[in-house]
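Supplementary notes for students who missed Thursday's class. We covered one full example, reproduced here. Read the sequence, then the structure, then the short commentary at the end.
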Amino acid sequence: MNKFLAILFFMIISVPLAQAAEESKNLQKMKYDVYAGGIHALQAHLKTDMSAPDRYDVALTAKTYGMLGKLAPWEGIFTTKGWKGEKINHPELHQAITTWKDEKETKSYRYKKDGSFVSYSVQEGSKKEEEKKPEEALTKETSDLLTATLNTMQLISAENKCEGETDIFDGKRRFKLVFKEQKKVELQSSRYNVYTGPAIECTVEVQPVAGKWREKPRGWMSIQEQGRERGTMPTVWFAKVQEGQVAVPVKVRVKTDYGTLFMHLTDYQSAGKKMTLKD
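Structure (token representation):
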């Protein structure tokens, strides 16, 4: 009887232990440092968790850094959890929490398992969450930025190509997010970036579809068009840093009127690999 209890106990604890190992195996954590015009302006962290058999979880946090962080204190927390698909993942909940000085805003986007849009709400500070009623033309068959990027990252991992078009609803507008492969390259680590190895260079373009778009580009559209005038769209280099994991961004370049912005991978952690940029 004691032997039977021992075997039963081992079987019970083996299940969570195996799941924990699988979670660790399919979890990637990255840190990025962003330089604008040579100034260390931003620090960001990205986490991709594909450990559950039918679920995914992606989180991106970013915060102004150093002197800029004191002059312009901004922080963004962007998260998505949803359902895995054979080729296309569908979000369940996407949240964008931004803080400017002491002003906090939370935007929540909810979806069904089949990918259809459910609701959009906004909460400002401690005020009551307010549900918005966007037009169906803005939300039908849309996704969120993190899921759209994750789908491209999975395609790169599976087929070694970067491409994809996804319609996104951001609360006021509908736009198409387009990834387009430029070439395959070999990257070398530097005092800014920890990654060495093969990568795929892709451009990212936002194409307005519907909603409140200004005639004169503002925000991201203005930055994108500044790059276009300089002969290059915003560019991301994706790489499979760890075999068996989805590809992740290892470098980003955006050219603007005020100089070139670079985002570099400075720390990477998974079950089978750890890389940290040396000081």
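Commentary. The longest strand covers residues 173-187. The longest helix spans residues 2-25. If anything here is unclear, bring it to office hours.
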